[in-house]
Write a structure and sequence with these properties.
- Chain A: Keywords: Membrane, Transmembrane, Transmembrane helix.
- Chain A: Pfam families: Lipase_GDSL_2.
- Chain A: It comes from Paenibacillus antarcticus.
- The structure holds two protein chains of two kinds.
- Chain A contains 13 helices and five strands.
- Chain A is of the alpha/beta class.
- Chain A is elongated.
- Residues about 40-60 and about 150-170 of chain A have low confidence and may be disordered.
- Chain B has one domain (about 5-20, about 105-325).
- Chain B is globular, with a radius of gyration of 22 Å.
- At the A-B interface, helix 1, strand 2, helix 5 and helix 7 of A face helix 1, helix 3, helix 4, helix 9 and strand 4 of B.
């Protein structure tokens, strides 16, 4: 009987106490959700992002790599999902004695130069870029071949590889569209490159040049080639102004090898195509 | 009122002596280390990948989610979730706060969050489903009712005892989870800011009301909401326990309802009147965290009212049935 008394005492006191605490929490929660008190925010001194963390890494010891840009940076079309980013990190790890790490791959399907410029204002993105020694950028394809990208990436992803893909993209991408997009987009590219440079003045920036995915279509071959060449030229003019910036050409790779290097969506490279781009990136760094 | 206290005392001693409460504690003591270990492995993995920098990890998470937004294969409903999720992550990143800082308190918070709709109700049922039907299975109910005490008093004492143990179970879940995970991740983290007050309108998050609360306060609010949910579930289980003769049957009925709830929350967004079911409303902590409700038009007050009505109805049913029915064996 004595133990029963103790059980009762402990249980009753403990349960009443916890019930009261939980009730307080319950009332608090209702109050907080229904009438949130704003203004307590930012109590914590938010240390400026990036500073102090982006220590001037001894570049000779380690390569920290970040990639940013469109679906090519992401690796769309590569069945293994690696894309040229992972492939070049692997290649670099093999060919050089330095430790290579991929910080982040910030590639987003369908990103245009406009989107990129906006993205570069995000603190999280800046934080990543500030820490990296090598920044790989791929952008512009969606500006020039707008519409084609959305359509083909959706098709390519779901694995529906019918012949209609290529014909429907032709309807979407007209010669006028390509040429009309050029001036504005190339201006935005310049802005983006300069922004990246200011975010991280010490990093090595690699811009992956464009290729013409429609080189095997009569209607688009000439226009596409012209637009891509012009684009790459504009990019080069900006890039030449800076130290530690380079353009990795891909135009020549793909011109006569579209069948070999393009994935089934007829827009993105396939695994082999990405490997070729990665090889060039690695060659440029060594 | 004077003679109800001994009845409650009697019930409490019965629960302890019958070792029902120890079963609950044992389940917790076995399961929490498993979860903790799993969590530790997964955080180790991401630490290796991102050099231990949570900002990089968060940024990658944002990017991955943004990428999936562009895919046509993902249902619109999920896209909405992800869009909201991305905006919240971005908010954390912009304010330089790690939403998943690994420590005992954060683990406890996430554990409690995940256990509100199934795990804690299950523990509650270990006691609530047995409290009346257990007496009938063993036949002791006759002894209880032959005493010169009114039937409603017997039932009320059982109900009060049950609610007392609901509180104890929630507290034990918190305590055990904190003590065990703390051994792995460290016992700190009560003052880390957690953001709450995300208001969701469509697929956009209204950040104007977002504010930081220290984690202990968040946990307190969270446990309060869990308590409300647990009491509701307990009262429902209590009703079933009155209606059904065997303990096993009453547990099965309650489990079926709860599992139906988790399935429904995952797919019932098209069937809007499902929001009046109690099991769809169990995720009260979502309103605190800013996770969108499974069905359009649900908010905290709505869920509280729905749960409250269900609880009230089950109390009324329990008492009318218990006081009127013949006890035969």
């Amino acid at each position: 009987m004595n133990s029963s008394k103790w059980i009762w005492r402990i249980v009753s006191v403990a349960s009443i106490a916890t019930t009261l605490v939980l009730l307080v929490g319950f009332i608090y929660a209702i109050k907080d959700v229904n009438a949130p008190q704003v203004g307590v925010e930012n109590e914590r001194p938010s240390q400026p992002i990036g500073e102090g963390v982006a220590d001037s890494m001894d570049k000779k010891k380690e390569y920290k790599i970040a990639a940013i840009g469109d679906s090519l940076a992401k690796g769309t079309g590569d069945q293994t999902g690696s894309g040229f980013v992972k492939r070049s990190v692997e290649g670099l790890a093999k060919s050089s004695s330095k430790k290579t790490t991929l910080l982040n791959n910030l590639g987003i399907n369908g990103l245009t130069t406009d989107g990129l410029v906006k993205k570069l204002d995000e603190e999280g993105v800046q934080y990543v870029l500030k820490q990296s020694d090598i920044i790989i950028l791929s952008i512009g394809g969606n500006d020039l071949f707008q519409g084609a990208q959305l359509l083909s990436s959706a098709k390519g992803k779901s694995g529906e590889t019918t012949n209609t893909t290529s014909t429907s993209t032709v309807q979407d991408v007209t010669a006028e569209k390509i040429t009309s997009a050029l001036p504005k987009a190339s201006a935005q590219l310049k802005v983006a490159l300069e922004k990246i440079r200011t975010i991280n003045p010490d990093s090595y920036i690699i811009y992956v040049g464009l290729y013409n995915p429609f080189g095997d279509m009569k209607e688009l071959k000439v226009v596409g080639n012209e637009a891509v060449t012009k684009w790459n030229n504009v990019a080069l003019t900006t890039i030449n102004k800076y130290e530690n910036m380079t353009l990795v050409p891909t135009f020549d790779l793909f011109t006569h090898n579209l069948k070999r290097y393009l994935s089934t969506d007829h827009f993105h490279p396939n695994a082999e195509g990405y490997q070729q781009i990665a090889n060039r990136i690695v060659q440029g760094i060594e | 009122m004077s003679n109800i206290l001994p009845l409650i005392q009697n019930e409490c001693i019965k629960i302890i002596k019958k070792k029902r409460f120890y079963v609950v504690l044992l389940v917790l003591l076995v399961l929490v280390p498993i979860f903790t270990y799993a969590q530790m492995r997964s955080s180790e993995l991401s630490r290796d990948k991102f050099n231990g920098d949570w900002r990089l990890e968060l940024q990658q998470q944002i990017t991955d989610n943004q990428n999936s937004l562009g895919s046509d294969r993902i249902p619109e409903e999920w896209k909405k979730y992800r869009l909201i999720f991305v905006q919240q992550l971005q908010y954390y990143l912009d304010h330089n706060v790690n939403p998943k800082e690994p420590n005992g308190v954060t683990f406890t918070r996430e554990f409690m969050d995940n256990s509100i709709n199934l795990f804690i109700p299950l523990l509650i049922m270990a006691i609530a489903s047995d409290i009346v039907s257990g007496e009938r299975t063993t036949g002791t109910i006759k002894m209880l009712l032959t005493r010169p005490v009114k039937r409603w008093k017997v039932l009320l004492s059982k109900m009060i005892t049950m609610i007392m143990f609901v509180s104890l179970i929630i507290f034990s879940t918190f305590a055990i989870s904190y003590l065990i995970s703390g051994a792995f991740f460290g016992y700190v983290g009560f003052n880390i800011p957690v953001f709450t007050g995300f208001q969701i309108s469509g697929s956009n998050v209204d950040m104007s009301a977002v504010h930081a609360v220290p984690q202990w306060e968040y946990l307190l609010m969270q446990c309060g909401l869990i308590w409300f949910v647990a009491v509701t579930v307990a009262l429902l289980a209590f009703m079933v326990s009155v209606l059904v003769k065997s303990t096993a049957a009453s547990i099965v009925v309650m489990m079926a309802a709860l599992i139906a709830g988790t399935i429904l929350t995952n797919m019932a967004s098209a069937w809007t009147s499902a929001k009046y079911l109690f099991m769809v409303n169990l995720q009260l902590t979502n309103y605190l965290a800013g996770t969108p409700a499974p069905i359009e038009g649900m908010n905290l007050n709505f869920s509280l009212i729905v749960l409250g009505i269900w609880a009230l109805v089950s109390v009324v049913v329990s008492f009318t049935v218990f006081t009127k029915r013949d006890i035969l064996n």
